[in-house]
Amino acid sequence: MIIDAHLHVWDLGRARYPWLTEDAGILHRDHAIEEILPTLSAVGVGGAVLVQASDEAADTELMIDVARRHPEVVGIVGWVPLDRPDLVPAALDRLAEEPLVVGIRSLVHELPPGWLAGMAQDESLSMLAAAGLTLDFPTKDPAALAELVAIGERHPDLGLVVDHLGKPPIGHGEAERAQWRELLAAVAENPRASAKVSGLYSAVGDPAAWTVDSLRPFVDDALELFGPGRLMYGGDWPVARIAGGYERMWDALGTILEPLDPADRDLVLGGTAERVYRLAEV
Q1: Mean pLDDT computed over every residue of the chain
Q2: What percent of the chain clears pLDDT 90, i.e. is strictly above it?
Q3: Strand boundaries in the chain, DSSP class E
Q4: What pTM was computed for the model?
Q5: CB contact set of 234 (below 8 Å; sequence gap of 6+)
Q6: Cα–chain-centroid distance for residue 149?
């Protein structure tokens, strides 16, 4: 089964999304899963992992409610207050009641650099590892990848997922690409780290100002560093709407991945997500 490992839903009446202001343009409205399901079906995606979009429990409860209504949802990356280790056990107990919850994420790219390195957060990460949950890691820019290397060293049993390949400098020059690659390579040395081929938009000007040829070198680098068995496809809807739409990204990645051996392509398009998020167990 083809799995989209990075899909969002949000409801402005149920949760707060401080980053989702009117400046977000077409994204500043509710986005329900019913809107994207026909497109997923049309391109052959059979399952999706919903990923948190707000640092509050209401967002996770929204995703749980959506999953109960839609069997297409095969996993949920939710949220717990990592800076409050006194509250994390109860939060994890609540999420343990929902077998579809397979990972945890915070919007660390909206927080001060190094936030996850705090003593409280570090204690909470140990609890995530003990619970068998992964940590998804979004970045504002590639520099934050260095934080993930340190986290992996402190928590060797914690599964780590780099969202959007760590925001590669698409549209910049070779020097910036080399810096990104070096940082991503350091993360890839951790065998429990994987990455999402998702959210690959232009880092310069209009997010939609990308081409297949501008994406290809970064995907090729990721394939070399992680291998297909540690990469997973993500459509990043509805954010993809500002970068040309879901189908445009799907077609581009399909073109880039086409030369792979079918078995390797199947890993990126589903097999890796099944293993990393242990979807066969939910």
Answers
A1: 96
A2: 97
A3: 2-7, 45-51, 73-78, 101-105, 134-137, 160-162, 193-197, 231-233
A4: 0.96
A5: 4, 5, 6, 7, 49, 163, 164, 196, 197, 198, 199
A6: 17
Q: Which of 135, 208, 195 is nearest to 165 (CA)?
A: 195
Q: What is the CA radius of gyration of the chain?
A: 17
Domains in the chain, number: 1
pLDDT higher than 60, residue 282: no
The gap between the terminal CA atoms of the chain, to the nearest Å, is 15
Other beta carbons less than 10 A from residue 54's beta carbon: 22
Q: Where are the alpha helices (DSSP H) in 103-164?
A: 119-131, 145-154
pLDDT at 118 over 70: yes
Q: Residue 79 has which token pair?
A: 């949220």
CATH of residue 255:
3.20.20.140
The tokens of 63 are what? 């995703």
Residue 280 has a pLDDT of 75
Mean pLDDT, residues 44-66 taken together: 98
Say if CB 14 and CB 58 are below 8 A apart.
Answer: yes
User: Can you give the residue range of the structural domain that contains 186?
Assistant: 2-281
User: Encoding tokens for residue 200?
Assistant: 């690959």
99-113 pLDDT tens trace: 999 999 999 999 999
